[in-house]
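Let's practice the habit of predicting before peeking. Look at the sequence and jot down your guess about where helices and strands might fall. Then scroll down.
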Amino acid sequence: MWVAGSGYADTRYEVGLVDGSVTLYPCICNYEVGKISKYNMERDDVVNIQSVHGCTSQTTPSESSNAGGVNTSSVEVMDLTFEESKPATKSATESKGTNSGMIREGQALITFPTTHEVFYNPVQQFNRDLTIAVVSVHSELQLASKGIKVSYKPRNEDIATAGKDISSTEGNSIPTATGDKTYHPGEYCQEGLCIVEGLSATGLRGVRYAKEIPGLKNIVANDWNHEAFKAIEHNIKQNEVEHLVTASHCDASLLMNQYRLSDRVDVVDLDPYGSPAKFLYNSMQAVKDGGILCVTCTDMAVLCGNRSEACFAKYGAMSLRAKYCQEMALRIVLHSIETHANLHHRYIEPLLSVSVDFYIRLFVRVHTSQSKVKQSAAKKALVYHCGGCDNFYLQRMGRLVPIGTDKKNFKYKNALGPPVGTNCENCGSRFLLGGPMWAEPIHDPDFVKKLLSHITAHSDRFHTSPRMKGILTLISEELLDCPLYHKFSQLFSHIRSPCPPIKKFRSALLNAGYQVSLSHITAEAIKTNAPHTVIWDIVKEWVKQNPVSRKRKLEDDSISSVILSKEARTEVSFDVRNDAIPGSQKQGITRFPANPAPNWGPKARAKPSSSSETLEEKRARLQDKRVKPKELRTDTEK
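Done guessing? Here is the structure:
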């Protein structure tokens, strides 16, 4: 790795013989002005193996050989950019190249293999920034109840120097707060939050937690991949956060299962490649009461209706190929998390649910209450989706009947239905059945408000703060009690009519006495509490005032003709109202930014590199995968 100026300059691999097999260990060189120092991460450096809740973790004391504890104070690295390594000099003993790259994100400096053995995607910096902000707000709320304050500014140099002197005499470098009970990032807090990151990859997120969030007690950065585990260990030492972050090499489900009886953690972070479904059961046992579960899903093809059968197998719900599929994906995953929570007499409180880029990210607070669990059926609903005009209707799975005037106690009854007939009353088409899905609010408005205030006050902490402000502002404007939405252009596409200005359509809904909002998912979303009949009456009135061109002549039996043949019953006014323009638009906030770079999307899954795999191992891995089954071979091949 070559970086302009001084600092981290070269990473090579040296060969070591361990247990009869050849293993590659990174050799890290640090070139500074006037001297060259070399640190070898060798097997002999590992002097202690400790157990982390049933999983193996390796630690290397900094006193023995630094073990990769490279001085990076003079490193100049652009955010989210890295170049291929370029050795300062070449000789017969040096490697011709390097298999690692380095990036700086937030306060973390991360080294990772460029051979795709360890997964890293710069696109998800927004995901990581948002998670840092959410956990920061959660930490503030939890510690405030204990009378503990936090500060996001680093402690002044005098106090930091005094802390180092004291810790060096004790032989244990653990930064702690002074007697004022105000904690800063990077300091150990005995009453602070415990975090488990089940699928850590490079350890980037765990290191950022340690260096950017005050009031933490412990972070476990876990990954089952051995190369990822080695990268986590190295990055922990490189960033000098050994006092807060522990590397773990374990199956994520097994790791979280160890917390089910005692020592539950405050935050569990699941950011898998693909679906998190197989981790939800054990993660729900690992979170303490009032703790937060953070979940990422990147299997959007499954959740958005391309493979409904796979969605049902993973999440227990049928997805639909509809224009609102991304919001439905959020609600399907919330339904799945709630189902796993109910198995342990627990229920969830969604704090924030976002669909962005190619993935969805959810933050839920977990509570324990048998009486609340009984209300779960009433929080979920099936979706009847019209295959013609895209109307949708919800069928709740259960009912709550209040007992008494205080409405604190309920009778739990079956839902009444169905909400529709065999055919759609608007266009006559048949319905498709989807769900069940979460039908309650997917955001906590109070938490979103606090989160937005936090990001505004500390915008310098986040590289993606403008985008976060835009999305959170849109979320704060969303109607909470209106699941799903219509796509504006699709409404008029059904009748082959040009679209009016969206502010006129929104004004018509407001003039009719209903509420309307956008969605953070798309600028074309029409989220409203108006019945479908009112929505289509507005569409018909616009077509009446602006007739469809003769070139777009409608067939007599088309869906368009069926819709327009019915008389409107709603008095419609397109007079533009001031409140039809969202506040976020008036403020000039960036709401739906374009992708900042080409190929802005998912990356390939981490996979073994040919440079670290012997020929025998490769043959074993590919055994019979390139051979046709006997029943498919021809007579000459047999």
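How did you do? Residues 1-98, 160-173 have pLDDT under 50 and may be disordered.
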